[in-house]
């Protein structure tokens, strides 16, 4: 039997020899593991073991014998032609190098970090350096000074004893013990480690496999790690670009220079790599992308150099787009346009990053114009965030989405249509009416449905409950105080619920029990029962503010007198309606609230003429040109008001012809010899008899203007939160809507669908 060829050798070099190899560039780091992640307490224990002569593990190197671009452990060290790269033992060797050279390392956050270990030569105690050890003369505050200070061992011992003697008296035995222990510590540099060196004939994949087999208990590697390893070997500059971008994203730039920093997400290098791989290689599953980057021919099942070169070129081209700061921040603008304000509203990093990938596809491959791209991406982000599109099997879902882009024409219209189709398939009527209310049955503080509601409130221009300040302003990520300006208030306070027999996080912290209030109002409410605190605070609002608050905050009628379980069941449905309306702001079907506006003047109405929200009637009761019955004329104004309520609201001008001629309402006034007060009362009664007193009182306002010696009547109508039926001569409970500048009757299935879509 032919003996197995051994594909490694063994060595026992001292530590100082390993450090010298790192400095010379003959021992490098191929980044098979993540950046430095050891805690300082573990480094302390390592040096304690070395000091005592205990076993301290081994190293696994790879003898490359060729130029391979890789990181050097010492910060600021240039890449050189490495003969050996460390495969296993990175954390240990990095610790030794950093401490014994007194140099900072790059930690997991891609920041520089100086590791300081303290040592007491009298007690032989090691400690992680802190203020206590720094101020204790018995401690060498940083053992790096023993090797990195440039002092001889004799001089170092002499200086330490001299300094210590200023605070305490030392006898000869103590001085000797200090000298001996410092010598023992300094001699750690001669500690011999066991090193296994892998053969140069092994490739990256085989080395990675060996690492996994013998280090199964260490930090597991994933496909992103392997791709980053390939980058370290074949395109180290690209890896550095990813790391620099990630580092910039964590801290605001000085002097307002352009940087990746933002209020939403500080991505890791492997996360930006995922975006680049998706854009350049059209792969969502990184395992597949790794094989492609290796240059593996899918037919011949062989690795080919030309394929590897071509795929790395694709990756390089894509990464340049991914790291473009203009595209990065324009995408973030899309997220803001979707109602999301900061990272606190994001429940999925995948959704954020994959959304960026799709944005880049739309811009660079389909050529979608910036404004149209922003509009469709805001809708896409809202949908994917709300539904958790990329939370279950995210790579598989992403790869399927990328495949869809390859199956349509590469035109701007095709991109927009594809996304809108996927959105419509997800956000169906059943989703809004059944699925979403069921999903809102949750107590999760980080639910995507909760933050979908918050985004909708921002889109709708909502104010905090009992307040006139917009929630979007209170959630401003640029403002950070000791107290959050807006808080999630339990409408049924937890202490109150416990007092009436409810318990458990699931019951007490239901999403449907939360509402945004200013922090001062939250404190004032305390643990009071809803029917104790709500009426007083709510009555401080105007009628319009009450109406807005009830809608935005999804408050069932007389909610404060409801049973708690009935309340949250009803409120879930209303919250789902608000989320739906928030999304409709993005589609243009709902107009957000922009604050109390002055009612439109007659001149403003005439400037726009008849539109979706403007209608003119020559008269409300008197025929001007023919013998039209009064009831028919009455019906004409009734159906307009009802249509406004069922659509987006609007203003009816009475005493103005269809062509915009000012006629005035004097003929109507003369008909029953009424003054303006009498006319207003008659008109109000007409509307109430047709649509109900509560509906009219809430949604109709009547006023008068004198223009060019003509008195006109202006009827301002608010959009209703529920379908409005008008009792007219056309038949009882007729349903009217506005279509363009006309009023239509809807019946049957058409009416049912409209109501499902709009209420």
What is the topological layout?
Blueprint: E1 8-11, H1 15-24, E2 27-28, H2 40-52, E3 58-63, E4 84-88, H3 90-101, E5 105-106, E6 112-113, E7 117-120, E8 125-128, H4 131-134, H5 144-148, H6 153-165, H7 172-186, E9 194-198, H8 204-214, H9 223-234, H10 236-248, H11 269-281, H12 286-294, H13 305-322, H14 325-337, H15 349-365, H16 370-387, H17 394-406, H18 412-426, H19 429-439, H20 448-459, H21 471-474, E10 486-490, H22 494-499, H23 505-508, E11 514-518, H24 519-525, H25 530-538, H26 543-552, H27 564-587, H28 602-608, E12 614-617, H29 630-646, E13 650-654, H30 666-671, H31 676-691, H32 693-699, E14 700-707, E15 710-717, E16 726-728, E17 731-739, E18 742-746, H33 748-758
Parallel strand pairs: 2-4, 3-9, 12-13
Antiparallel strand pairs: 1-9, 3-4, 5-6, 7-8, 10-11, 13-15, 14-15, 16-17, 17-18
Number of strands: 18
Widest sheet, order of strands: 1-9-3-4-2
End-to-end separation: 82 Å
Rounded average pLDDT: 86
Chain oligomer state: single chain
- Largest sheet report: 5 strands, mixed
**Which range does the strand content fall in?**
5-15%
Integer tally of domains: 5
Shape: elongated
Number of helices: 33
Structural class: alpha+beta
Helix content: 40-55%
What is the radius of gyration? 36 Å
Note poorly predicted spans.
66-70, 74-80
């Amino acid at each position: 039997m032919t003996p197995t060829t051994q594909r490694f050798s063994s060595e026992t070099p001292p530590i100082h020899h390993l450090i010298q190899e790192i400095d010379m560039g003959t021992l490098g780091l191929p980044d098979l593991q993540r950046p430095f992640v050891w805690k300082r307490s573990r480094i302390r224990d390592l040096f304690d073991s070395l000091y005592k002569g205990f076993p301290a593990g081994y190293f696994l190197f790879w003898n490359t014998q060729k130029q391979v671009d890789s990181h050097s452990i010492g910060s600021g060290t240039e890449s050189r032609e490495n003969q050996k790269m460390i495969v296993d033992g990175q954390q240990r060797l990095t610790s030794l190098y950093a401490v014994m050279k007194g140099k900072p390392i790059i930690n997991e956050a891609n920041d520089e970090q100086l590791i300081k270990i303290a040592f007491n030569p009298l007690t032989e105690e090691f400690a992680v350096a802190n203020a206590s050890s720094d101020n204790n003369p018995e401690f060498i505050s940083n053992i790096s000074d023993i090797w990195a200070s440039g002092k001889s061992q004799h001089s170092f011992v002499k200086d330490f004893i001299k300094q210590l003697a200023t605070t305490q008296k030392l006898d000869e035995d103590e001085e000797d013990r200090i000298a001996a222990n410092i010598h023992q510590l300094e001699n750690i540099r001669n500690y011999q480690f066991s090193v296994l060196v892998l053969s140069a004939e092994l490739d990256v994949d085989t080395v990675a496999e060996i690492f996994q087999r013998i280090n199964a208990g260490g930090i597991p590697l994933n496909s992103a790690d392997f791709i980053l390893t390939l980058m370290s070997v074949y395109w180290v500059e690209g890896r550095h670009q990813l790391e620099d971008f990630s580092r910039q994203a964590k801290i605001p730039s000085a002097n307002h220079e352009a940087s990746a920093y933002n209020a939403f997400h500080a991505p890791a290098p492997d996360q930006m790599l995922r975006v680049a791989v998706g854009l350049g290689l059209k792969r969502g599953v990184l395992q597949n992308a790794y094989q492609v980057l290796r240059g593996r021919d899918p037919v011949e099942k062989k690795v080919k150099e030309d394929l590897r070169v071509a795929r790395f070129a694709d990756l390089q081209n894509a990464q340049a787009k991914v790291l473009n700061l203009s595209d990065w921040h324009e995408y973030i603008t899309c997220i803001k346009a979707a109602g999301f304000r900061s990272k606190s509203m994001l429940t999925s990093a995948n959704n954020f990053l994959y959304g960026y990938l799709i944005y880049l596809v739309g811009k660079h491959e389909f050529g979608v114009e910036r404004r149209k791209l922003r509009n469709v991406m805001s809708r896409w982000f809202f949908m994917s965030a709300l539904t958790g599109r990329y939370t279950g099997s995210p790579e598989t879902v992403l790869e399927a989405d990328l495949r869809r882009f390859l199956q349509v024409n590469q035109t701007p219209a095709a991109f927009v249509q594809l996304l809108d189709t996927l959105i419509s398939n997800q956000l169906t009527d059943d989703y809004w009416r059944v699925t979403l209310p069921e999903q809102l049955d949750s107590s999760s503080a980080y639910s995507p449905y909760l933050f979908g509601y918050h985004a909708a409130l921002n889109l709708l221009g909502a104010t905090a409950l009992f307040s006139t300040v917009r929630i979007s302003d209170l959630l401003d990520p640029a403002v950070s105080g000791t107290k959050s300006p807006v808080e999630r208030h339990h409408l049924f306070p937890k202490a109150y619920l416990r007092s009436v027999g409810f318990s458990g996080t699931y019951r007490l912290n239901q999403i449907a029990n939360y509402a945004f209030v200013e922090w001062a109002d939250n404190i004032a409410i305390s643990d009071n029962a809803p029917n104790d605190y709500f009426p007083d605070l709510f009555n401080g609002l105007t009628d319009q503010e009450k109406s807005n608050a009830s809608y935005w905050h999804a408050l069932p009628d007389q909610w404060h007198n409801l049973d708690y379980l009935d309340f949250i069941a009803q409120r879930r449905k209303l919250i789902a309606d608000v989320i739906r309306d928030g999304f409709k702001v993005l589609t243009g079907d709902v107009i957000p609230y922009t604050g109390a506006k002055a009612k439109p003047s007659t001149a403003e109405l005439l400037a726009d003429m008849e539109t979706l929200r403007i209608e003119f009637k020559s008269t409300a009761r008197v025929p001007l040109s023919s013998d039209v019955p009064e009831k028919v004329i009455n019906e004409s104004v009734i159906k307009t008001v009802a249509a406004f309520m069922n659509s987006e609201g609007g203003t009816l001008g009475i005493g103005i012809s269809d062509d915009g001629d000012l006629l005035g309402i004097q003929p109507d006034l003369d008909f029953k010899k009424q003054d303006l007060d009498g006319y207003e009362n008659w008109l109000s009664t007409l509307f109430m008899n047709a649509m109900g007193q509560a509906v009219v009182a809430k949604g109709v306002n009547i006023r008068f203007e004198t223009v060019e010696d003509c008195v006109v009547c202006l009827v301002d109508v608010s959009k209703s939160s529920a379908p409005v039926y008008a009792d007219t001569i056309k038949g009882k409970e007729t349903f009217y809507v506005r279509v363009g500048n006309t009023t239509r009757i809807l019946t049957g299935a058409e009416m049912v669908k409209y109501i499902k879509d709009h209420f």
